[in-house]
Amino acid sequence: MSSLPSLSGIATLVRGACPHDCPDTCALLTTVVDGVATKVQGNPAHPQTDGVLCAKVSKYPERTYHAERVLTPLKRCGPKGSGRFTPVSWDAALDDIGARLQAIAQRAPEAILPYSYAGTMGLVQGESMDRRFFHQLGASLLDRTICASAGGEALVHTYGGKLGMRVQFFAESRLIIIWGSNSIGSNLHFWRYAQAAKRDGARLICIDPRKTETADKCHEHLQLRPGTDAALALALMHELIRNDWLDHDYIARHTLGWEALRERALQWPPERAAEVCGLPVQQIVELAREYGTTERAAIRLNYGVQRARGGGNAVRAIACLPALTGAWRHRAGGLLLSSSAALPARRAALQKPELLGARRPRTINMSTIGNALLEPGGGAFGPRIEALVVYNSNPVAVAPESAKVVQGFAREDLFTVVIEHFMTDTADHADYVLPATTQLEHWDIHGSYGHTDVLLNRPAVAPWGEARSNAQIFRELAARMAVHDAAFAAPWFADSDEDLCRQALDPAQVDFQQLLDTGFAHLRLPDAPFAEGGFATPSGKCEFHSARLEAQGINPLPDYLPNHELPDPQGPYPLAMISPPARNFLNSTFVNVQKLRNAEGRPLLEMHPDDAAARGIEDGALVRVFNARGEHLCHASLNGRTRAGLVVGLGIWWRKDGANGTNVNELTHQHLTDLGRAPSFYDCTVEVAAA
Ligand SMILES: Nc1nc2c(c(=O)[nH]1)N[C@H]1C(S)=C(S)[C@@H](COP(=O)(O)OP(=O)(O)OC[C@H]3O[C@@H](n4cnc5c(=O)[nH]c(N)nc54)[C@H](O)[C@@H]3O)O[C@H]1N2
Ligand SMILES: Nc1nc2c(c(=O)[nH]1)N[C@H]1C(S)=C(S)[C@@H](COP(=O)(O)OP(=O)(O)OC[C@H]3O[C@@H](n4cnc5c(=O)[nH]c(N)nc54)[C@H](O)[C@@H]3O)O[C@H]1N2
Ligand code: SF4
Ligand SMILES: [Mo]
Q1: pLDDT in tens, 100-147
Q2: Residues whose beta carbon lies within 6 Å of some atom of ligand 1
Q3: What is the pLDDT of residues 361-386, one digit of tens each?
Q4: Among 142, 168, 511, 642, which is most exposed with the fewest C-beta within 10 angstroms?
């Protein structure tokens, strides 16, 4: 079964793919000795991976064989949330879960809610048999908005889809704007291309409220206030217009709504944006000059910009820039936020939405799960949520306004199943915890949102303990349901994980045999996606003005929308707070891997020395971070990385590791973004005091 020849007769190398929610989607090589994975490396044959992995996934064997891995099904034996469980057999667990779900489904199938996100990004373990199961059941649908939907919808309304520059061509750019991205921490393999460009003489400019390690390595850093990027983009347009750094031919042939956008941008002189963004006027003027006068100008935008109220508009405004200058004409110019729409995934074949028949279940937004669990109608029309099946996600730690999420998960009348590797904050609140396989133990297919290759993940080792893959667990649950409902006996509930891999991609575009042979395949795509226009919008143009947004009653032109919560120096919560990713964690994954946890130290709040001094707080002091929603205890770090008025709590620690059993999401709220119904994690105000 395994792929490459064995080394020295005892070690085998197995090709795989990194499953994590990271734009890099690395190709993995796992060394297996006597059935045990001893080492995980980057596959040197895969160009984007180039034999290099981040510090996190280099520790994948340590995570897989972790002493705290859940290895058998567990049933709750203490009060909800106590974390007290007793091992049970798979049969006992699945029989009981099947019966409980069946009983609810007979009355009110929409009272059952699946909750999953990107613990694995795999098409099979992330969005195949699970969807078939819940579609057949008629369960509530989940709106998966917690990460990227504001920016994603912005791209759809501007370019027609999540499409952009191909990452390898950043190496040829002359100017790279790294906008809302800590690339060294979160997008390492892009950073390698940016460094190649830098060695070749390119200018690197970082736009980020935090002085990240990426900002340290750029030539220029615009340290703006969070949530003000649209104002900056509009001022850049103002300068492009005033200096006529425009590609009039590209605008005329490939864009829609230029006159209206021009009028709006002319209302944003750099002085006005400087005021809103908290930046020097000259820095904005200079950035516009560099952007407007450099031919191969590229923007690496990341999701950091869209976690505030106006995040969708900000992405739309920024996405207009390369169409104004015609940067798209060159493959080393343009913009990349996500290129995931290039993947020829056959999601309908994998998920079978037709199993819903005539039923149209309600949709619950995962970002407001706190409210949804507490409100009578699940936060929408229909019944109260009675059962939750959580997999590939740790909502008790990662969803906003934790106090409400915890209160919801603690409901004694809620039946909760969590499929996990570890006893996360969410698993602690389960009625049943089911042990899941890791990436080293199951099959999967992966696209990427940061490059344009497709990867196959083969199992390198047998599942440890009694772990089963997500797909297998849903197959077996379907078999339990089939006893009462013959629809669950249909042949598609018997497809194996490997069958699902074969169904996942359009065979006309990806040769499965090639995936088996080499582990990855390049998609056949043009080098420069929009060199000749060809946007996937209804008009075929880059839509500055969106008729589709207008039809929804939304401002059709990109605009600056102030944050939900603006720090008021005279008010009770005078500091803005952002909580971006920690370099050694992947959201809340890896928090329990000791070497990575040691590298992060402990939960910290970065503060500006002036803000700390005004509160009598010294470096390393225990502080109380609080607002009307709650309080989080952690240690102050005066490391020079924030601006005055801004505090930064790098995430996402497990709540149970917090000094008072909380993490930063104790402070975030459930207000949504302008587009995409997403959380606005980085649009939050707090006060800090010595504890
Ligand atoms: N090491 C590591 N890598 C990760 C993750 C992780 O947790 N750890 N998470 C993964 C996930 S889920 C995702 S979605 C991706 C991308 O996730 P992103 O959220 O894009 O993560 P970052 O690249 O760290 O970029 C966020 C940057 O945006 C900055 N920022 C915050 N607010 C604003 C703002 O209003 N404007 C601007 N311009 N910048 C702002 C932050 O200071 C931070 O440096 O990364 C993935 N990669
Ligand atoms: N304050 C704040 N909150 C945030 C963010 C932030 O920047 N600040 N970022 C947000 C973003 S961008 C995102 S994407 C979300 C991420 O939120 P989640 O998608 O919940 O990501 P993780 O916290 O990594 O949790 C994933 C879980 O899936 C499990 N898992 C992994 N593989 C498998 C598998 O094969 N099977 C099963 N059953 N389980 C598996 C892991 O053990 C892990 O516990 O968090 C969001 N929350
Ligand atoms: S987390 Fe990202 S950088 Fe690390 S191995 Fe996975 S894809 Fe590569
Ligand atoms: Mo994310």
Answers
A1: 999 999 999 999 999 999 999 999 999 999 999 999 999 999 999 999
A2: 21-22, 147-148, 179-182, 185-187, 207-210, 212, 226-227, 229, 302-305, 308, 578, 580-583, 585-587, 682
A3: 999 999 999 999 999 877 777 899 99
A4: 511
In this structure, what CATH number is given to the domain that contains residue 590?
A: 2.40.40.20
Does the structure show a pLDDT above 50 at 6? no
466 shares a domain with 588:
no
CATH of the domain at 377: 3.40.50.740
Contact 582, 651 (CB under 8 A): yes
| Domain boundaries, position 217 | 151-337
Residue 426 placed within a domain? yes
- Measured CA distances, 52 to 191, 335, 457, 587 (Å): 12, 25, 17, 21
| Tokens describing residue 179 | 């906008």
Measured by CA distance, the residue closest to atom 13 of ligand 2 is 147
User: Which residues share a beta bridge with 203?
Assistant: 175
Indicate whether 141 and 180 sit together in one domain. no
Q: With contact defined as beta carbons under 8 Å apart, do 178 and 218 qualify?
A: yes
Measuring from each residue's beta carbon to the nearest atom of ligand 3, which residues come in under 6 Å? 18, 20, 22, 24-26, 53-54, 56-57, 188, 586
Q: For the whole prediction, is pTM greater than 0.85?
A: yes
pLDDT, position 8? 56
448 alpha carbon, closest ligand = 3
- Asked if the structure places residue 545 within a domain, the reply is no
Question: How far is CA 368 from its chain centroid?
Answer: 16
